[in-house]
Amino acid sequence: MTPREALSNRERIVTVPNGWVMLPLLLALVLGDIGLFIYSIAAGKADQPFVLPLVASLVMLPALITLMTGLFTLQPNEARVLVLFGAYKGTVRTAGFHWGNPFYSAGATSSSARVAAVHSAAKGNTTGVVRLPRNKISLRARTYNSPTLKVNDKRGNPVEIAAVVVWRVEDTAQAMFDVDNFLTYIQTQSESALRHLASLYSYDDGEENESTLRANVEDVSKALRSELLERLSKAGVTVDEARLTHLAYAPEIAQAMLRRQQAEAVIAARQKIVHGAVSMVDMALRDLAAKQVVQLDDERKAAMVSNLMVVLCGESEVHPVINAGTLYS
């Protein structure tokens, strides 16, 4: 048995009595106990009531009231972890009205305490444990939008990166007992995984067949999800989707990288322009020769090629010069 297997908890699904059955039963017992209390006083003498029924009714009343506190409800996609005197007894996942042992741990005492703990965790305070009242855990899909992080890519260039993670609790026992605060754990591990992922890829212009952050968003998102699944499995959390939401060079090098991208774009455009111009000049010379419009020697062909290349590749408007003489004057 590995240390992971020895320390990890596993969720056990349990069923508890139906609350709609227990509620009228408990109410009937409470009313019966009140009736017993009244009977023990009324049926006895004025100065000497029935002691035994009176004592029994007084003892049973707080016990019955305590049993009524075991009633609880669960909404769809919500679970309650049952903890009795520190021992994990199982998890209830069925939505509806239920009754459980009133001594099951109640978790957070109020919703205000839960909200305060969530705000504390959002500010980076990991000392508080975030739990819903009565150890309830939401099983709904939730999102975590990471802050924009400044990291170095594979080539050492500083970049800004952020991601959104869609996650949900899969194993309530692990989420409750294997980590101190599963919400803070998700935030910390998501940011750590994002930093590690950014260091494995170049922002752009990678080597041949190399994935980059900007050009291969789908591959990067799949890699991020795989790493998050591995990291968050300890907290019983599964990741439905992970995707980059922000990607840019850091401000200190953004202008330099923008100029480089502009230069690369200009070079690529020039290559296409020159390739097209050469094709057009070759076509013009071939058509002139095939149709025998004019016979040109090598010197005149070179001059014509030069003039056409200037016209086709020049950025400014061309002003033609009309030759009033012959081609050779």
- The CATH level-2 architecture of the largest domain is identified as 2-Layer Sandwich
Q: What are the secondary-structure elements, in order, as H or E?
A: HHHEEEEHEEEEHHHEHH
CATH topology-level fold name of the largest domain:
Tetrahydropterin Synthase, Chain A
Q: What is the CATH superfamily label of the largest domain?
A: Band 7 domain
What does this entry look like structurally?
It contains 9 helices and 9 strands. With 329 residues, the chain is an alpha+beta fold. It has 3 domains: 3-99, no CATH class; 137-249, Band 7 domain (Tetrahydropterin Synthase, Chain A, 2-Layer Sandwich), CATH 3.30.479; 254-313. Helix 8 packs antiparallel against helix 9. The longest helix has 40 residues, at 251-290.
Summed up:
The chain is α+β, with helices and mostly antiparallel strands and 329 residues long.
Please describe the topology of this protein.
Layout: H1 3-7, H2 19-42, H3 51-68, E1 71-74, E2 78-84, E3 87-92, E4 96-99, H4 111-122, E5 136-138, E6 142-145, E7 149-152, E8 158-169, H5 172-177, H6 182-200, H7 217-232, E9 237-249, H8 251-290, H9 298-313
Antiparallel strand pairs: 1-4, 2-3, 2-5, 6-8, 7-8, 8-9
Helix pairs in contact: 2-3, 6-7, 8-9
